[in-house]
Amino acid sequence: MKFAIAIRNMGPQSNRATIRACARIAEQAGFDALFVSDHLCIPVDQTEGSGGRYLDVLATLAFLAGATDKIRLGVSVLVVPYRPAVLTAKQVATIQELSGDRMILGIGVGWMKPEFAALGADFRKRGAITNETLSVIHHLFSADAPGAYDGPLVKFPSFAFLPRPRHPPIWIGGNGAAAMNRVLKFGDGWHPMLPAAELKVKVEQLNARARAAGRDVPEIVVRRGLKLEDIGAARAKVAAEKEAGATYFILDLGRYPDEQSFGKSVETFMTKVAN
Fold first, then answer.
1. CA 250 to CA 271: how far, in whole Å?
2. Phi, psi values for residue 4, rounded to 5°
3. What's the pLDDT band for 256 if we cut at 50, 70, 90?
4. Which CATH number is 2-273 given?
């Protein structure tokens, strides 16, 4: 099992010095990747814990690409219907290029209706928009000179799409059948929010479908908080996730107050739980 960590790109901890320090702590500790979370237009009644302050995830990853050297950089998860498909592909390609192929693209369809309304995005078509965007990303990354694209929601003529770095891994968020179907069609990993007790059966089903389709089984990604003051319980929880089929564990430290607290928790996890 590989380990990654979530870094707060929201709230007062999302200042330049703190997020850079936390990214460097995570890299020095040996985490495989760091992850940030996506919100663009938080309703005023949903601001507990963040105060309404959120940094854009793709801009944040671009910043952190320049502040780090080896750790991978991910989104858990990018709400795809919030953004135009070609623009998203260009931003992803730029981060992948400038980071030296370190990006992980976690994607989701979204859930917060007021945020969709503020952005003028169609909540009812969020699944279809996500599928179309994933199709566009695959199209633009797949050839030296991508031809015209003519889909049900997106159409464009042939154009130069450069730089074209290596395709980043795509991890599909979501718990249901639609998300699992996206994994098999577009993805390299599945990033559900299911408890371990429910995860095992679905992982077995997904892996069986992948093998039947003649493709590699996907990475199974979980994101969890742990009570690090109880090392035994924390170790048991990680072991349960692995037993359920998780291959990748993102540690979420919640609302840590500053980089010093973040660093202490990182040290505890890596020396007493991960090993």
1. 16
2. -135, 180
3. very high
4. 3.20.20.30
